[in-house]
């Protein structure tokens, strides 16, 4: 097994806060342990049980496997050696899984020599840098760091390069009802919806409003408005009616909205304040609808230029 590169470092500094480049750069950096890059047999590699990612999209894995089968792995995965012929993944489990699907027998890997307590930190930083984790996975990873390493939120903030407030906001997500957390993990709602729900003290009320979000596809702004109505003593139904009355468009704006919807052949959303200030949004369900909308605007531009 030929070793292509090797680095040895003795000065212990905070490389994790510098992000992904500081973890796997081929340039000398000051950190503890050492790194080498080798071809490692796939059957000698095992996943990290503390890997922050919990789910892997099957279709995305198949696409990556197809790419790997054609051009190979572009970015080596990162491993640590646990025994003579066994390695544990620090970063790159998705590439490892896809390589198995592609039928590879060995893959290039950076071999890191680090202490156990640093493994979770490196996996977390690597995934956050790549934006691979959903909000709940990130929250669970932060919780793991706090509970299993004895680090404070300030220390975690330094290590992962995020503000303490951002970390606290992620941790608060774990206080939401389980079904809301599951929806956030599946990206059926986003962080904005979750933060709005957290403004309510009652879990039962959080669930009721969450079901309204699922049923009606409310925007974050709409949920924030409903939360404010609930805090003012309204129930969900009366709050919805008040918001609907507030958002009702004057007749002339309704006519313009209908004309625009007809012209674009798609549903158009419009809001307007009593002073005439508002916003027009054009939702689309897929790439085909977006392409249709853009073609309409392109034709308008062509017609104007030809006049």
> Strand order within the widest sheet?
1-2-6-4-5-3
The structure class reads alpha/beta
State the order of secondary-structure elements, H for helix, E for strand.
Answer: EHEEHEEHEHHHHHHHHHHEEH
Name the average pLDDT: 75
Helix content: 40-55%
Strand coverage percent:
5-15%
Number of helices: 14
Largest sheet: 6 strands, mixed
Report how far apart the termini are: 70 Å
Strand count:
8
Weakly predicted, low-confidence segments: 1-34
Shape annotation: flat
State Rg.
25 Å
Question: Would you write up a description of this structure?
Answer:
This protein is α/β, with parallel strands linked by helices. Helix content is 53%, strand content 14%. It contains 14 helices and 8 strands. It has helices at 20-24, 58-71, 93-101, 116-130, 135-149, 153-160, 164-172, 178-185, 191-198, 203-216, 220-231, 236-247, 251-264, 287-306, and strands spanning 5-8, 34-41, 45-46, 77-83, 86-91, 106-112, 269-272, 278-281. Strands 1-2-6-4-5-3 form a 6-stranded mixed sheet. It has a two-stranded antiparallel ribbon with strand order 7-8. Strand 7 and strand 8 form a beta hairpin. Helix 5 packs across helix 7. The longest helix is centred in the last third of the chain and has 20 residues, at 287-306. The N and C termini lie far apart (70 Å). The model is unreliable at 1-34 (pLDDT under 50).
List keywords for this structure.
single chain, 307 residues, alpha/beta, 6-stranded mixed β-sheet, two-stranded antiparallel ribbon, 14 helices, 8 strands, 53% helix, disordered N terminus
């Amino acid at each position: 097994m030929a070793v292509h590169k090797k680095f040895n470092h003795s000065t212990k500094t905070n490389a994790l806060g510098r992000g992904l480049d500081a973890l796997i750069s081929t340039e000398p950096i000051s950190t503890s342990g050492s790194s080498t890059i080798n071809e490692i047999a796939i059957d000698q590699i095992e996943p990290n049980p503390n890997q922050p990612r919990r789910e892997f999209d099957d279709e995305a894995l198949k696409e990556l496997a197809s790419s790997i089968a054609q051009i190979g792995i572009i970015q080596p995965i990162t491993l640590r050696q646990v025994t003579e012929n066994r390695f544990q993944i620090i970063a790159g489990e998705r590439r490892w899984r896809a390589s198995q699907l592609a039928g590879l027998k060995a893959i290039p890997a950076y071999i890191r020599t680090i202490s156990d307590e640093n493994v979770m930190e490196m996996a977390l930083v690597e995934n956050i840098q790549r934006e691979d984790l959903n909000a709940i996975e990130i929250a669970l990873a932060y919780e793991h760091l706090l509970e299993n390493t004895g680090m404070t939120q300030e220390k975690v903030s330094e290590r992962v390069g995020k503000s303490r407030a951002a970390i606290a906001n992620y941790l608060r997500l774990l206080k939401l009802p389980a079904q809301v957390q599951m929806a956030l993990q599946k990206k059926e709602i986003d962080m904005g919806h979750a933060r709005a729900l957290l403004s309510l003290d009652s879990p039962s009320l959080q669930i009721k409003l969450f079901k309204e979000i699922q049923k009606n596809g409310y925007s974050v702004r709409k949920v924030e408005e409903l939360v404010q109505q609930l805090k003012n003593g309204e129930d969900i139904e009366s709050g919805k009616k008040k918001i609907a009355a507030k958002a009702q468009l004057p007749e002339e704006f309704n006519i313009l909205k209908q004309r625009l919807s007809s012209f674009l052949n798609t549903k158009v959303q419009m809001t307007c304040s009593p002073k005439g200030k508002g916003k027009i949004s054009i939702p689309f369900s897929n790439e085909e609808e977006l392409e249709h909308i853009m073609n309409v605007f392109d034709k308008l531009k062509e017609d104007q230029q030809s006049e």
